[in-house]
Design a protein that fits this description.
This protein has five helices and three strands; from the N terminus they run ααββααβα. By secondary structure, it is of the alpha+beta class. Strand 1 and strand 2 form a beta hairpin.
Length: about 130
């Protein structure tokens, strides 16, 4: 269970990283849309797990590119939140596959062959 402080810190990081990917890191991601779906922060606030979702791009290539430029992204984050926090956390990016999992489950459910239920007869009319 995350403390209130961890949750507040995670929301701040999520908001600022979203702005960084939208505005400052356009040279890295091009026209790709990157969404920060979730951020988990360690209890000492020194480490953050950032889960990313990708649209309009190859997820694997973009994920590798972001990991190569992790230091630059952390520096941009430090410029934005450095005056309001003590520690700029180390960042680890992870691909969020919940959207692809949801699509897979939707396909599995739609492909199910479920027979129609037999109609029930009224038992009340026999009284």
């Amino acid at each position: 269970m995350e403390s209130k402080r961890q949750q507040k810190y995670a929301k701040l990081i999520q908001k600022e990283l979203g702005d960084i990917f939208q505005k400052d890191a356009k040279h890295l991601v091009g026209k790709a849309m990157i969404t920060i779906t979730h951020v988990l922060v360690s209890p000492d606030l020194g480490f953050a797990k950032v889960y990313l979702s990708f649209l309009l791009t190859d997820p694997d290539a973009t994920y590798k590119l972001i990991n190569q430029h992790k230091k630059e992204i952390r520096h941009q984050l430090a410029k934005r939140i450095g005056k309001s926090v003590r520690i700029i956390p180390e960042i680890a990016f992870f691909p969020d596959d919940s959207a692809s999992y949801a699509q897979h489950m939707d396909k599995v459910i739609s492909d199910l062959n479920i027979p129609e239920a037999p109609e029930e007869e009224d038992e009340d009319s026999e009284d």
